[in-house]
Structures are given as structure tokens and as C-alpha cells.
């Protein structure tokens, strides 16, 4: 069964390594280039016209890697796997429409705010409602109405509040990845680290699943997750696909992921967190996305309340660029921050299991 994880990761990597340059040529031929803010760092002006909507590459590669790994190994897709992929594709479609309008209509704002929000709400609500369906033999559904950190805890919040909570997470993480996607390779490299961690978490939860309680040394430390191995297969496919895309997206980027990619990555990361019962842990695992989002909140809040800016420019990565850091220096140091967040998150995940044991 573990072969699925290896196959999905390798296929995802191969498809984006080979497929992304083909996408670059197609987008360049059609003139689908990136719009650059006039008030941003001057060095970014040279990026104007770089092909965008590159998220198409790793979205398609991830979906293909997942289903091909199933065909190769002979295992059937699960409801959890299809739901997470559906969330990724749905959010990616909303981002694609936003990118397409920006480029083709030559309109810097893309989708109107209400239309974009409506699209995200439709995708998010559909995911949340369906996540509470499809019980397995043990009575587990892909999602749970209990809040979770490394496992479920506390009282059930009920299906309505669960949908609201899931929507908040999806919107917050999607916007977080979107804000992070401002420098060559920054969001892609950070995502590789998080998806690598979720591959490990899925494998661990599968090995310590309550479904195998009779073979575990301590059944009290088991995990009630419906399809943990399939979540690991998707996380592995994403890690490979993003790594292959990073080859072309790193500085100087030949292609940008656009909202197509950033909304999809934020959505699928949230989906993995919800279905693996690590909803609050993802705030630590994706700490860089949270940090950058908070920099925007602080900047906007401070300016509205006091008329002063805390940072030279928000999001945070542009503040350091304006302080004189090179783009590559900012990216690498932010990757290190993300790596630390992942290590802390995995440490807390393991500590929770060890404490119960």
C-alpha cells in the first residue's frame, strides 16, 4: 500500500518537470503575462509579462499522479482523496477565472470581489458539507464536527458551525498562500515543506490507526482518521508536483503560479488539515503563511487607526526587499522560517502521540 505514496510523488515530480516548460511556451504564445504593481520594489518591474497561471501545471500533475498511482497499484480512490482533490481543483478554478480576467481583459483587479468570494463560498461549502458524509465501517466520515489539534478534542460544534469553521480555514489559508506568492519560488518552496510534513503525518496515522487497534502496542494512542494513507498519497503527489514546478518557478522565475496556484494550494492544505484532524496544527505547520497574513493585517490596522505604517510595505517579504535584502536572500531565509515551523509542528504531533502512549 505504501507504494502509492512513492509512485504519486515521483509521477507528480516528473509531470511538472516535463509539463511546465510546455505550459510556459503555450502561455507565452498567447501573451498571458503577469501584471506587476507599480508601487512595488523596482526590481519587480522586469518581471512584467512573465507567463502566469502556472498553477495549472501542478494542479493537473497532482490529479494525474493520484489516479495513476491508483491504477498502477490496483487500489481504489477514497472519498477523502476525491474530496481534497475536488477542493483543490475548485479553488484553482476560481483563481484561474481571476487570472484570466486580469490578463485577457487587461483589468488589474480580475474577478470582482463579490464574484470571487461567491466562487470560494460555493467550493468551500460543497467541500464542508460532503466531508460529513460517506461513513466507513467504523462510522467515521472524512471530516469531523469536533475541533482538532493533533487529534479531535472537545465537544462537537455541530454541522452548521463546522461548515462555517471550514470556510474560515479555507479562506484564511488560501489568502495566506496568495499573499506569500510575491517572490520567485517563495510560496512554492514553502508548500513543498508543508506537504512533505503531511505525507509523514498521513503515514503515521495509517500505521497507528484505530482500525488496527488489535495490533497496536497502545490502542489509546491511535488515530480515528477515515483515510489517512490516501491523504499521504495526495500530499506526496503535491510535494513532487510543487518540487518540479519550483525548478521553473525559482529565481529568475520562468513562470508564476498566479491565483490559480495559490488559491488551489491554500485550499488543498486546509483540506488535508481538516480531514487529518490537525486543524489547529496547520497554523503552526504553515506558519510562514500565517506570519505573512498577519503582517498585512497589522499594516492595514495600524494605518487605519493611527495613520502610520508598521512596515515599509506589506506583505512582509516586500518590507525586507525595501530594506535592501536581495530577493533570493528573502526567499531562502523565509524558507528556513517555514522549515522551523514544520519541525515544530511535527514535534508537537509526535509529542502528542508519545504523551498518550
Briefly, what is this?
This protein has 357 residues and is mostly helical. The chain contains twelve helices and two strands.
Q: What can you tell me about this protein's structure?
A:
Its cofactor is Mg(2+). It is a multi-pass membrane protein. Strand 1 and strand 2 (152-156) form a beta hairpin. The model has no long low-confidence stretch (mean pLDDT 91). Helix 3 packs antiparallel against helix 8 and helix 6 (186-207) packs parallel to helix 12 (327-356). This protein has one domain. The protein has helices at 3-30, 55-73, 79-104, 113-131, 158-180, 186-207, 228-249, 258-275, 282-285, 287-306, 316-322, 327-356; strands at 146-148, 152-156. It is 67% helix and 2% strand.
Amino acid at each position: 500500500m505504501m507504494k502509492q505514496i512513492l509512485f504519486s510523488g515521483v509521477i507528480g515530480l516528473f509531470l511538472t518537470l516535463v509539463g511546465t516548460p510546455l505550459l510556459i511556451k503555450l502561455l507565452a504564445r498567447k501573451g498571458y503575462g503577469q501584471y506587476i504593481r507599480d508601487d512595488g520594489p523596482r526590481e519587480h518591474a522586469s518581471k512584467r509579462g512573465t507567463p502566469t497561471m502556472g498553477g495549472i501545471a501542478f494542479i493537473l500533475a497532482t490529479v494525474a499522479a493520484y489516479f495513476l498511482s491508483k491504477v498502477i497499484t490496483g487500489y481504489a480512490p477514497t472519498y477523502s482523496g476525491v474530496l481534497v482533490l475536488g477542493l483543490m481543483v475548485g479553488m484553482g478554478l476560481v483563481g484561474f477565472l481571476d487570472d484570466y480576467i486580469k490578463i485577457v481583459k487587461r483589468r488589474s483587479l480580475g474577478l470582482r470581489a463579490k464574484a470571487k468570494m461567491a466562487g470560494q463560498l460555493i467550493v468551500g461549502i460543497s467541500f464542508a458539507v460532503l466531508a460529513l458524509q460517506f461513513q466507513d465501517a467504523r462510522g467515521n466520515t472524512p471530516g469531523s464536527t469536533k475541533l482538532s489539534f493533533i487529534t479531535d478534542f472537545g465537544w462537537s460544534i455541530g454541522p452548521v458551525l463546522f461548515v462555517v469553521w471550514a470556510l474560515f480555514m479555507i479562506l484564511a489559508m488560501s489568502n495566506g498562500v496568495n499573499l506569500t506568492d510575491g517572490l520567485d519560488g517563495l510560496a512554492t518552496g514553502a508548500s513543498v515543506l508543508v506537504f512533505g510534513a503531511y505525507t509523514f503525518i498521513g503515514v503515521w496515522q495509517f500505521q497507528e490507526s484505530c482500525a488496527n487497534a488489535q495490533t497496536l502496542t497502545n490502542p489509546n494512542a491511535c488515530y480515528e482518521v477515515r483515510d489517512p494513507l490516501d491523504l499521504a498519497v495526495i500530499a506526496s503527489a503535491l510535494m513532487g508536483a510543487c518540487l518540479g514546478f519550483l525548478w521553473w518557478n525559482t529565481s529568475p522565475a520562468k513562470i508564476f503560479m498566479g491565483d490559480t496556484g495559490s488559491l488551489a494550494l491554500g485550499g488543498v492544505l486546509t483540506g488535508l488539515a481538516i480531514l487529518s484532524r490537525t486543524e489547529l496544527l496547520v497554523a503552526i505547520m504553515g506558519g510562514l503563511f500565517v506570519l505573512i497574513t498577519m503582517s498585512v493585517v497589522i499594516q492595514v490596522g495600524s494605518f487605519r487607526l493611527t495613520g502610520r505604517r508598521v512596515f515599509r510595505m506589506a506583505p512582509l517579504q516586500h518590507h525586507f526587499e525595501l530594506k535592501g535584502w536581495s530577493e533570493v536572500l528573502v526567499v531562502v531565509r523565509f524558507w528556513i522560517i517555514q522549515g522551523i515551523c514544520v519541525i515544530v509542528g511535527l514535534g508537537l504531533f509526535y509529542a502528542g502521540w508519545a504523551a498518550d502512549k
